[in-house]
Write a structure and sequence with these properties.
By secondary structure, the chain is an alpha+beta fold. A hairpin with a 2-residue loop joins strand 4 and strand 5. Helix 2 runs parallel beside helix 6, helix 3 runs antiparallel to helix 4 and helix 3 runs antiparallel to helix 5.
Amino acid sequence: MEQFPLDLWKRMGKAGLLGLYLPRAAGGGGGGAGSAELVVAGEAFVRAGGNLGMASAWFGHSVVARFLVAGFGSKAQKTALLPELAAGRVTASVAISEPGAGAHPKHLAASAERQAGGFVLNGEKVYVTNGMFASVFVVVAITKMEEGRKRFSAFLVPRDSEGLTVEAMPPLDLLRPSQHVRLLLPDRRLERSAMLGKAGRGGRASDRSCGRSCALRPGPLWRWWDAT
């Protein structure tokens, strides 16, 4: 399986699998909000489908939808995005890692400079899961330096944003057909309403996304290896 099966992804959305842990009011399944439920569902995906890449794509989508958009979004952002995420009509992908830095906050360099009415975003992100078909990216960038420490904020950046470049990265064999991309963000102007959550709290978004997804994925991963 080389190409990501978008037709299967859409069917998963129609079946309610992409919104299992989103609120029922937003079209989701209303499932448990904790990490343990994601692990159990991930194991089921891997065992039933026998494909770690599809489980990884599902994990990425679920973590961003449940813990970032539903967890930090404004009322307007939740109203606009959650029903679309639950149905699979929209996929949101988180962009944290950078070349030579990984996701380590001390080494991240992408920045969002505050200007009248909004921000100007500059930087490069790599290994962005689901980026080949994501409709919107949650980009974590530095918005302030405070006593020598970087303060991060998260921003919603639509795929069709002017100046945004999305480039495919070499595939990881173990995770096929899950695809990763590089994002180039030169002088991308954002409205203030694009910020996800409060200014300077993007570190929490990074922890929730990278921390949870990196911690959760090994469960299904090793159980899949044990079953093969």
